[in-house]
Design brief:
- Helix 1 runs parallel beside helix 14 and helix 9 runs antiparallel to helix 10.
- It is globular and about 70 Å long.
- The longest helix is centred in the last third of the chain and has 21 residues.
- It is built from 16 helices and 22 strands.
- Strand 1 and strand 2 form a beta hairpin.
- The two termini are about 20 Å apart.
- About 30% of the residues lie in helices and about 15% in strands.
- The strands form six sheets. Strands 3, 4, 5, 6, 7, 8, 19 and 20 form an eight-stranded mixed sheet that branches.
- By secondary structure, the protein is α/β, with parallel strands linked by helices.
- The protein binds flavin-adenine dinucleotide (FAD) and 3-acetylpyridine adenine dinucleotide (N01).
- The site of 3-acetylpyridine adenine dinucleotide has 25 residues, from helix 5.
Length: about 550
């Protein structure tokens, strides 16, 4: 028996009786660390944890790596963070050798990058694909987690790393009659791996979030007709996507470290230049010109045109007016343009970034239906019925988003200390410390969990920061011979209060119903989930680590 509980006596075969008492399990399925998910979070966690000399394995329900980019294969799927930023920075060789072909990379290119990373760092040999982890239970005596998969396998692990993704549990609304639809039913987040041919077809799309906004112009180009069912109009800024500027790429690559460091100092860890000026302190002409400049650059930096758009309704309404005018300039039919103009605060839902979204509504084969006015009553065998009309479709696309941030975790039956389930602990919303640990669930870490900057930042940057924090903490435990780590209810309560107090100062909580608040899922507790501000969050994590991991308890 080794003193250090995570050291394996290699060559010594011992067998343990599992929790159920009936299956004998060889050491093969006993791990120091198990990772759930093989998206960018799970892949990097696997690479780093291996580096600690741990016996580690990842389980992934998909048949390959990539996570988001494995599942979301709908036409037009691409990132809205510049490609040179939406990539790993942990290996300089990797970031130097990889070249992106466009300013905003497409899903196939991001997926090939993920595959390249898995090959370069030989990750696949420790990933079991097509396996969903269904259950986790903490054994307080043995201080290990017992896991079960949908293949009937069992495993134990001291450490659990939940790399299950913030946007990985798709949302299929319970429309009456949905299972009676006899045409082609598609969900953007579960898109087929073979090409979908819309030529000559009547197609319906439900939803007008980021996924729909990327997909609509492309499907409109192929289909006979496309009918878009919009519940809430969204703000979308043109991407102005282009081929990669090779000169710019070379400049960035020559100073990649500084470039990354500079971007990490921005609120969203994205290299957008904030304008330190209030929208209300400039003349009408200057304001208009500044918005025009940002619109012509395109993308997410539009949200940072002035420094008070996220906190002051009056300032925000100047941006709303500007975008409304743009929509009305672009869309020729007055009523369609009006319906496309959002009546919410700009930026309280994630800003969409598009290529020809509004322009698409000028096509004669594209129709917009306002389902706030005329809600969908039910789906039929060949279409759907709204309050005032019946529609017939060959294909129906659900672009209805995700049970975000908590959905994938809630999908696993997780039981911690004293038989407490994660579902009951989170019945009023996710409670945790730093978005990393939940009290009563020892040695279980969430990567980009609720309460961390996650979806309000460049997520690959947020993922690397979390994985680095967790692996440093595990190394600290190894060096100091600690067996378990967990957080306290006090630390957790204080953290959630702090996250909410920051959000309450912004328009995120009062400006609209967003998935950040859980408002898109009926019955989900309404609480603002992400932490606003990447640099302040990192500062807090560094401070906690420097104080021997304040807020964490070790045994
Ligand atoms: P994921 O990529 O979601 O991976 C989680 C993995 O866990 C999945 O493969 C899933 O199958 C697996 N899993 C979950 N539960 C289980 C289980 N019980 N058992 C086994 N496996 C399980 N972010 C940005 O910063 N910039 C962008 O431009 C951007 N664009 C996006 C575009 C789209 C269409 C979407 C949907 C999201 C986008 N995001 C973007 C967010 C994106 O999710 C993150 O950037 C990042 O890819 C998340 O990586 P991850 O590994 O944390 O999670
Ligand atoms: O999902 P969404 P998404 N009846 O939740 C509608 C990232 N992402 O997949 O707004 C009728 O935004 C819903 O209506 P409403 C990004 O973080 C990034 O598009 O709830 N309609 C909404 O219109 C993004 O924010 C990119 O009223 C229903 C739509 O479906 C996140 O993923 C691309 C409904 C869902 O929009 C999610 O985006 C794609 C119902 N019952 C995704 N239920 C990039 O560009 C839902 N809707 C980088």
């Amino acid at each position: 028996i080794s003193l250090w509980p995570w050291q394996h006596s290699h060559g010594l075969v011992y067998r343990t009786i599992t929790r159920t008492g009936c299956n004998l399990m060889s050491t093969e399925n006993n791990f120091d660390a198990v990772i759930i998910g093989a998206g960018f979070a799970g892949m990097y966690a696997l690479h780093k944890i291996r580096g600690l000399g741990f016996k580690v394995k990842a389980y992934e329900r998909a048949s390959d790596v990539g996570g988001t980019w494995f599942w979301n294969r709908y036409p037009g799927a691409r990132c809205d963070v510049n490609s040179l930023e939406y990539s790993y920075q942990f290996s300089d060789e990797l970031q130097q050798e990889w070249s992106w072909s466009e300013r905003y990379s497409s899903q196939p290119e991001i997926l090939s990058y993920a595959k390249h990373v898995s090959e370069r760092f030989d990750l696949r040999k420790d990933i079991q694909f097509e396996t969903k982890v269904t259950q986790l239970e903490y054994d307080e005596n043995a201080e290990v987690w017992h896991g079960q998969t949908d293949r009937g396998e069992e495993f134990t692990s001291r450490i659990m790393i939940m790399a299950t993704g913030c946007l990985s549990k798709s949302n299929t609304p319970q429309f009456e009659g949905l299972n009676q639809f006899e045409g082609q039913l598609l969900h953007t987040a579960q898109w087929p791996h073979t090409e979908v041919d819309f030529a000559g077809k009547d197609v319906g799309v439900i939803g007008t979030g980021s996924s729909a906004i990327q997909l609509i112009p492309i499907v409109a180009d192929q289909a006979k007709t496309l009918t878009v069912f919009q519940r809430t109009a969204n703000f979308s800024i043109p991407a102005h996507n282009s081929d990669m500027d090779k000169k710019h790429e070379a400049q960035v690559k020559a100073n990649y470290k500084e470039f990354r460091a500079q971007n990490s100092l921005q609120r969203s860890a994205i290299g957008m230049v904030p304008n330190p000026v209030s929208a209300l302190e400039v003349s009408d002409e200057e304001r208009e010109q500044t918005y025009e400049e940002r619109w012509s650059v395109g993308g997410l930096p539009f949200a940072a045109t002035f420094n008070d758009l996220g906190i002051d309704r009056r300032a925000n309404s100047t941006a709303v007016d500007f975008v409304h005018r743009k929509i009305k300039d672009i869309v020729k039919d007055e009523q369609t343009a009006d319906t496309l103009c959002p009546d919410t605060v700009l930026g309280c839902k994630r800003l969409c970034v598009d290529s020809n979204y509004y322009e698409t509504f000028n096509r004669s084969n594209v129709f917009l239906v306002d389902i706030k006015q005329n809600p969908i009553k039910n789906i039929t065998h060949n279409g759907l019925v709204t309050a005032d009309k019946e529609f017939k479709f060959d294909s129906l696309i659900l672009a209805t988003g995700f049970d975000a941030m908590t959905g994938a975790l809630a999908d696993i039956s997780i039981t911690g200390r004293e038989k407490q389930t994660l579902a009951s602990h989170w019945s009023e919303g996710p409670q945790n410390y730093l978005g990393l640990m939940v009290s009563g669930f020892p040695n279980m870490f969430t990567i980009t969990g609720p309460g961390s900057p996650s979806v309000l930042s460049n997520m690959i940057v947020a993922i690397e920061q979390h994985v680095n924090f967790i692996t440093n903490l595990l190394d600290f435990m190894k060096q100091t011979q600690r067996k378990t780590v967990e957080t306290s209810e006090k630390a957790e309560t204080e953290w959630v209060q702090q996250v909410n107090a920051i959000a309450a100062q912004t328009l995120y909580t009062s400006g609209c119903n967003s998935w950040y608040l859980g408002a898109n899922i009926p019955g989900k507790p309404r609480i603002f989930m992400p932490h606003i501000g990447f640099p302040t969050y990192v500062e807090k994590c560094n401070e906690v680590a420097a104080q021997d991991y304040r807020g964490f308890k070790f045994s």
